[in-house]
Design a protein that fits this description.
By secondary structure, the chain is mainly alpha-helical. About 70% of the residues lie in helices and about 5% in strands. The chain has a two-stranded antiparallel ribbon.
Length: about 300
């Protein structure tokens, strides 16, 4: 494997890191505040991506960034609605029961989204305002390239996630989220509006997934399976990094794209690398999970008897 091939693989992983990190952050926000793993996360993001495309096609003079904001706003409303209308009413239901609720939402969206957006289901996600060309540059004397839309995906994800982490650390909302994640009952006793916290967390998760959905499907034909792989890898990232903190799963969303890209590199895995890319990635990640059963940054919980 040459230095050029190695560096190019690292560069190719950057856009994937951005997309996976957005969805991963949404999953961990929901899990930490409501102890629920949201199986509908990918479909909410797909719905938002469809809204972006619909807005761009219906109003051709509309700047793309406004269409993206509309998609994120739709994801926010949909996510918050799931918490308010369903999850909040299921307080007495077991965590497995809540997971089944989100799976039901996923199945509903799988069938409803193509019906709502039947006019645009065969259209590509819009590419106006963001170039589909490659950015060419030199690093360590090696000529490399990266799609410009991939650069935007990585930069925007990094900026937004940095803002989320700063908000978690320095704002009243962040304090409320951390208190709710630690113990919802105690947080309520201390005056934290946990209902508002959980609703906003679900909404923010939906908005992040919608943005991830846009960058995942950029320039491709829309379909309801747009976010299938992304959601699976985002869940794996949470397990790999550890559900015990907010930053830990982001580490998983950095490691998995690297494994995925190198697993698909024919210089390493041979000419048939692409065929076995998903399988190789799952095997490597599962081995890492076996080595770190509580997550790479997770801590083993010790209960006193």
């Amino acid at each position: 494997m040459t230095l050029q091939s190695f560096l190019q693989s690292l560069v190719n992983a950057l856009p994937l890191m951005g997309r996976y990190a957005l969805v991963t952050m949404g999953i961990v926000l929901i899990f930490r505040t409501t102890a629920t793993t949201n199986f509908a996360q990918g479909l909410i993001g797909t719905f938002g991506a469809f809204v972006v495309t619909w807005a761009a096609l219906e109003w051709t003079s509309l700047p793309l960034w406004i269409a993206i904001v509309l998609g994120m706003l739709t994801g926010f409303i949909l996510g918050a609605a799931v918490d308010i209308a369903l999850i909040r009413m299921a307080k007495r239901i077991t965590p497995a029961g809540k997971q089944m609720i989100t799976m039901g939402i996923m199945m509903i969206l799988v069938n409803v989204v193509p019906k709502i957006f039947s006019r645009i289901v065969l259209n590509n996600l819009p590419g106006k305002s963001i170039s589909t060309k490659n950015l060419e540059f030199t690093l360590f004397g090696q000529s490399l390239y990266i799609p410009i839309n991939g650069v935007w995906a990585f930069i925007i994800a990094a900026v937004i996630l940095t803002a989320v982490f700063l908000a978690l650390k320095f704002t009243r909302w962040g304090l409320g989220v951390r208190a709710t994640a630690a113990n919802e009952t105690v947080a309520q006793m201390l005056g934290v509006n946990t209902r508002l916290i959980t609703a906003f967390s679900w909404g923010l998760a939906g908005a992040l997934s919608a943005l991830g959905g846009f960058f995942t499907g950029f320039g491709t034909v829309l379909n309801v399976n747009l976010m299938g792989n992304v959601q699976v890898f985002a869940f794996l990232a949470c397990v790999l990094g550890g559900f015990g903190s907010f930053p830990a799963p982001i580490l998983g969303s950095v490691i998995i794209p690297l494994v995925y890209v190198f697993a698909g590199n024919p210089n390493i895995m041979g000419k048939q690398a692409g065929i076995w890319q998903n399988l190789t990635t799952f095997v490597v990640v599962l081995l890492l999970i076996l080595i770190f059963p509580n997550g790479i940054l997770g801590k083993k919980l010790i209960k006193k008897v």
